[in-house]
Design goal:
By secondary structure, this protein is α/β, with parallel strands linked by helices. It contains 13 helices and 15 strands. The strands form four sheets. The protein has an eight-stranded mixed beta sheet, with helices on both faces. Strands 7-6-12 form a three-stranded antiparallel beta sheet, with no helix packed on it. It binds pyridoxal-5'-phosphate.
């Protein structure tokens, strides 16, 4: 059986070092925050080339607290996409703000043209736009030059959701660097994944860093004195210990993801009606997922692969604006979100994790080519 993702393989690949890190924290006897968390924050900040990083309990919290740190909340609208993890939209509502969803392009990320149209025809009865949350989905950087220019022109704050794009960039500029702060999930299957829940925020701004540190811990600036209403969203030091080990191999893992993607690209080229991931000049995606567009044959392809014990996943089967929790009450761009709705029926995420072997990749390619020929 070839799994679609395999966080256990990521653990086994570093088992001795991860076990040692966990034991170090256990024996250290300091089980909340402390030096392990501070060390991971320094190391992650170096990785993102920012001055600071603030560890929190999840990617959802990283976004929510990031929005709150920028004073985005009730009475503010935040624009993001419908084709993303539901957490992106949930975090905006958790901050008290109003999500407004805009369509995506062929690269599955925010369409700058749709964004411009939305801002030119703002939905009635919706609060004023205050921020944009581009999502670097599947490890593919969003069109940041265009989105940043639109944000500037409209005086909007930007917060990048980098949960699927640790280390991705455009022309040597890393994702996250277009915003005053950027949010990352460290969920086990992410490119940098803990062995449980975790998240982190990167920023160059010492004022934001201080505020985020307060917000994640009851609003404390000094112990037992809350300066602002906060929550409990601390990064667990055991997870920080694990993440320090995983961070050391992240660049190597990313290179392996890119090599897997290149092998898929070569092996799957030339199948008419099967679109491979978009490649843009200067973009350095990190292939959190390798997503093909199989059009109307998607479900049949997925079933055929499953019959050969090759597991795939549909990210995401229902756009957020059509999910029961949101349907009918979430504002969307003018003309609706046709690309997002089409994507839900045509995307398929192939097996993708650094420990995937070349033989397994070739089996996936062969199975897809076999299916494509016979249908
Ligand atoms: C995983 C993910 C999140 C949420 O992260 P959690 O750690 O599960 O809270 C947010 N946005 C995107 C794009 C994600 O992929």
């Amino acid at each position: 059986m070839i799994p679609q993702a395999n966080p256990k393989a990521g653990y086994l690949a570093q088992r001795a070092d991860i076990d040692a890190a966990i034991l170090r924290v256990l024996n250290d006897g300091w089980y909340i925050m402390g030096e392990e968390v501070a060390a991971f924050e320094r190391e992650f900040a170096a990785f993102t080339r920012t001055r600071f990083a603030v560890g929190v309990a999840s990617g959802t919290d990283a976004l929510t607290l990031g929005l709150r740190a920028l004073d985005i909340g009730p009475g503010d609208a935040v624009i993001t996409v419908s084709h993303t993890a539901v957490a992106t939209v949930a975090a905006i509502e958790l901050a008290g703000a109003t999500p407004v969803l805009v369509d995506i392009g062929a690269d599955w990320t925010m369409d700058p043209g749709a964004l411009e149209k939305l801002l030119g025809a703002w939905p009635v009865g919706v609060p004023k736009a205050k921020a944009i949350v581009p999502v670097h989905l599947y490890g593919q950087p969003a069109a940041m030059a265009k989105i940043a220019a639109i944000a500037d022109a409209h005086g909007l704050i930007m917060i990048e959701d980098c949960s699927q794009a640790h280390g991705a960039g455009i022309n040597n500029r890393l994702v996250g660097s277009w915003s005053r702060l950027a949010a990352y999930s460290l969920y086990p299957t992410k490119n940098l994944g803990a062995l449980g829940d975790a998240g982190i925020i990167s920023t160059d701004d010492p004022v934001l860093q201080e505020k985020l540190c307060a917000l994640r811990q009851y609003g404390w600036r000094d112990r037992y004195i809350s300066d602002m209403p906060g929550i409990n969203s601390r990064l667990d030091p055991i997870q920080a210990g694990v993440l320090r080990v995983k961070l050391q191999v992240l660049e190597r893992d990313t290179e392996r993801r890119r090599a897997i993607a290149a092998r898929y690209d070569a092996g799957l080229a030339g199948l008419s009606g099967l679109a491979l991931p978009a490649r843009s000049a200067g973009y350095a995606p990190v292939f959190h997922q390798y997503v093909v567009n199989a059009g109307p044959r998607r479900d049949a392809l997925q079933a055929a692969l499953k019959a050969r014990e090759i597991l795939t996943v549909v990210h995401y089967p229902v756009p957020i604006h059509l999910q029961p929790a949101y349907r009918g009450r979430i504002a969307i761009g003018p003309g609706g979100l046709p690309q997002s709705e089409r994507a839900a029926h045509s995307v398929l995420s192939l097996p993708m994790f650094p420990q995937l072997s070349d033989d397994d990749i070739d089996s996936v390619i062969e199975a897809i080519r076999g299916f494509w020929k016979t249908t």
